[in-house]
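User: structure tokens for this one?
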Amino acid sequence: MAEYKKTDAEKTYDYIHNLLNDYWKNIAINIFEWKRKNGEPLETISEGLTSTQIEEELYDEGTSLFFKDENIGYMALPVAPASTLNVYKKPTKFRAIGNNYNKEYDVDNSVLIKNNTLKKATAEIIDFYTGKLADIELTKDLHRNAHKTPLVLETTEDTLLTAKNIFKKIHANEPVIFKNKTRGEGEVGVSVLNANVPYINDKLEDDYHNYEARILTALGLDNYVEDKHERVQSAEVESQQEYIISSFRASLNERKKACEKINNMFGLDLVVDYVKAEQIETDEPVEDDNEEVVDNE
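Assistant:
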């Protein structure tokens, strides 16, 4: 069976998709910071243990196992549940898996860190939405090129190369006129048909920003996409804020619970903080400086 080869369009889609995944992953793994209460980084309690490492595992896998190896020290590695379950169908034993590392731990000597309540990886939802964004980017390019050449060239086999050269020059932003020396009276060399391509890139741009807003909501980051057609009601903004805060809490609370368990189990002084948007932590709504204040007195 012949090996399937991707088309240029598929390769371009994959490139854009991967580029967007990296962009959003870099944002996501820097939302929370793990450190010691005195502000020192995690490396001061164990070499190689970093906040970025923990957050990257939570992003990719949805969970991470914190434990103390008798030879290496404190570690946080990807985890697979062992076969032992309690009455609530929760694992009581875990297998920590790393490069040349595979050991079993249990609830008495390790702490399972969850990315969120459902232990879902952030990468899953980011990959879904960045796929939409990549598709929109390709569609925008397609329509932009269609407006660059809003025409169809009708040609014969003899003048096919001429038609291709015309398109190449147009795409290179070069004005082009070809003289067909062999064309006789009444003969058609290359005919031009208007494709009547509608302009929709502004709508695609709106779609793009809406999907970006969904990603930000999933990450618990504030996002506001202005409606161009009508003023968004304050109730809608407040409702959106509730979704953002809920998503934020689901992630932060699981980290704080794991942090407390780690400190109690190992006598450490770890904390996890939200790096940005203090108003979400305190549940304080963002004030709109442009909102008109009406004095009813």
